[in-house]
Amino acid sequence: MRQRIFVDGIAFWSPQRPSWEHARAACNGDYRPPTTAAARPTPTLLAPTERRRAPDSVAVALEVAARACEQAELDPTTLCSVFASTHGDLVVTDSVCETLAKTPLLTSPTKFHNSVHNAAAGYWTIGVQCLRPYTAVSAWHYTFAAALLEAATQAVVQQEPILYVAYDIAARGPLGTMAQSAGLLGTALVLAPGPSNTTIAQLDWFTRHNAALTATASDSPLTPILAGNAMHGCLPLLEALAAGSHRNLSLAVSAQLELALELRPHNGENTQTP
Predict the structure, then answer these.
(1) Regions in the chain scoring below 70 on pLDDT
(2) Are strands 162-168 and 185-192 parallel, antiparallel or unpaired?
(3) Contact 14/68 with Cβ under 8 angstroms?
(4) pTM metric for this prediction
(5) Residue-number span of the structural domain to which 142 is assigned
(6) Using CB atoms within 10 A as the burial measure, which of 130, 145, 195, 225 is most buried?
(7) What domain count does the chain have?
(8) What is the pLDDT of residue 268?
(9) Strands 162-168 and 80-84
């Protein structure tokens, strides 16, 4: 059964493209380098002490979450959220594992709580003082699509906007040979069951089993820069949103389950139930 949701807010961050405006321009062949470059965003939602201790995964997740809520003109304390990361923070996890192997009595409690997969979601709810439920999703190579399906389902079933945040960072150490990822990448969407004055696009979706599934490939100037990041599965949808045109996409939720998307730029029309 086809369902319909609306994209009311979007955000993006990577060191080379530190905003959705930069990413959208790059997708459309009109890229201008940022005047300043940063290795990671600054999570201003957090108190200074927490800000210094927050790892890169938390910093990029909080940055895009805040920007997406701003664009959607929604109070983040009112939103349920879905946070997605393929691996979590492998830098912190590698450090904890190395310490446990060599000097286990020196294991840092701060690093341990930063190593859990839902750390970014926890920091977000603390930073904005949000008491709404959140979901943390990991599905290996299928993480972006699986978590998008979760967020879209929540928006339809609960009939309220949902904040969707997806991010991954570079891997290192022995874990990096098994769970490969390069660079820092974060993106966020606010998905709503109906249109609003901030709606960017209309998204019709459904799932189907497909034994010969071929997912939509990314083909924008962002691809060679970000393809090494474990969250590169977000790129086809972001490219379609940047283009602002009618597109059909196929994202893999598993080896044989497809999330089919029909994206249309929102013009205030075609908002009836599909």
Answers:
(1) 35, 37, 268-274
(2) antiparallel
(3) no
(4) 0.94
(5) 3-265
(6) 145
(7) 1
(8) 67
(9) parallel
